[in-house]
Specification:
The chain has about 160 residues and is an alpha+beta fold. The protein is about 30% helix and about 45% strand. It holds the Pfam family Polyketide_cyc2.
Length: about 160
């Protein structure tokens, strides 16, 4: 499996960052690539939660995918599988992980994506996919940082 990993330090408590992540509708506020989020399951939190995401343009087209949460460790980690409606460079399934680690002055947030590169086409497209995924993930985590930290300052003032 090939992995794309992006990390960022967020100057807010881990529990606060967690709350922004698990209220998946809030992704519309902090992730500039997300256009729409809709819960597909009755569950809103925990393993088995399924959520439809519609992105803005990624690689020149809008994408829809279903995020299916596979592992949930409160205030610590969420593992998920994104199942894409349409193939992107031959990929229909992407594995993801959100990891939060407590720091002295906040939280280190890591977002990993895993791609099974099991064909010649996928190996050929991997550098472009890696670049695009890194770029959009970096923009998303910077948006998360800004949104969470602004909320933290609003509470202080």
């Amino acid at each position: 499996m090939k992995v794309v990993e992006e990390k960022i330090d967020i100057y807010a408590p881990r529990e606060k960052v967690w709350n922004y992540l698990v209220d998946q509708k809030r992704a519309e506020d902090w992730d500039p690539g997300v256009d729409h989020v809709e819960y597909l399951s009755d569950k809103r939190k925990g393993e088995g939660t399924k959520t439809l995401y519609r992105t803005k343009r990624v690689f020149g087209k809008e994408l829809e995918f279903v995020m299916d949460i596979k592992k949930w460790k409160e205030n610590d980690e969420i593992e998920f599988v994104d199942k894409l409606e349409d193939e992107v460079f031959g990929f229909k399934k992407i594995y993801g992980d959100w990891i939060l680690e407590k720091l002295d002055k906040g939280t280190e947030f890591t977002w990993e994506f895993g791609f099974v590169v099991d064909s010649l086409r996928k190996r050929f497209m991997w550098p472009l996919l890696k670049y695009g995924t890194s770029k959009t993930t970096r923009e998303a985590i910077e948006g998360l940082k800004e949104t969470v930290e602004e909320g933290e300052h609003d509470q202080e003032g």
